[in-house]
Specification:
single chain; 265 residues; alpha/beta; five-stranded parallel sheet
Length: 265
């Protein structure tokens, strides 16, 4: 090749080969939260203060964090993404939540089944239960776990024919919430179902709880119902499965939704 011809070739301007992954493409995929390790591209070194186990790459952790944020946004709970354990009051049980999260991460590192599979957060309306479990989800997501948040009634609605958001099928809804997450936060267990005893509710909830137990994937439940209220909806047998290997944290505090000054109606 002549010197003149060589000078005309600018590598950056040359057409790329079909299916070649460029640095610009990798950067765009990373910004979108994609796991580029699935493309066979080595992850570039990054400075991150997240505590991960060996088999989780930084890009994969970013993709999982995006999945968590999206599930919170779908639930219209964007404002809960700011909460951390350090923001909780003592009655919201931050130490118990933190200790359980440590056990989940340790079990994940060892590829073992957590000793406590369920964490039940109970309390009155407005006591701060959702804030507490959202803080747990935020902390768990920061540590590389794939976490999803969904209200019990919402999940059931999505599992009905043509009930899923964004044209997701019933199978995709189940996979997203039952099969995939390392940790599922099921908010408002049996909420708005007082006295409901339909076969559909029990069948779908039994499938969710039983499948996650069988695969060793932990679940958080929050509820403002007493045990008898949940038993009325789900039945004694399913409730006993939820209570088995579970930790109960009662959140007893003031109603945060009560206005500071009484309204004169």
């Amino acid at each position: 090749m002549s010197t003149l011809a060589a000078e005309r070739i600018v590598r950056e301007r040359e057409p790329k080969r079909l299916f070649e992954i460029t640095d610009r493409m990798v950067a765009a995929l990373q910004r979108g939260g994609a796991d580029i390790s699935q493309l066979g591209v080595p992850a570039p070194p990054e400075e991150d203060d997240v505590e991960l186990w060996e088999d989780v790459a930084i890009p994969q952790a970013h993709a999982r964090a995006l999945a968590w944020r999206n599930s919170m946004k779908t639930a219209d709970h964007d404002d809960y993404l700011k909460w951390r354990f350090s923001d909780l009051d003592d009655y919201q049980r931050p130490q118990a939540l933190s200790g359980w999260l440590d056990s989940l991460v340790e079990a994940k590192k060892k590829k073992a089944r957590p000793s406590t599979m369920h964490f039940i957060v109970s309390g009155n309306i407005g006591s701060g239960k959702t804030t507490a479990v959202a803080a747990l989800g935020n902390e768990a997501s920061n540590r590389g776990l794939l976490v999803r948040f969904v209200q019990h009634s919402t999940y059931l609605a999505w599992r009905r024919p043509d009930g899923g958001p964004d044209d997701l099928s019933r199978y995709q809804i189940r996979k997203r919430h039952v099969e995939d997450p390392d940790l599922l936060i099921l908010d408002e267990l049996c909420g708005e179902m007082d006295g409901v005893q339909t076969e559909f509710v029990r069948r779908e909830t039994t499938d969710l709880v039983g499948s996650r137990l069988a695969s060793g994937r932990p679940t958080v439940f929050s509820t403002n119902l007493k045990r008898d209220g949940i038993k009325t909806v789900l039945g004694e047998r399913l409730l006993s499965r939820i209570e088995d290997r579970a930790y109960l944290a009662k959140v007893v505090g003031p109603d945060r939704r009560t206005p500071r000054k009484s309204l004169d109606w």
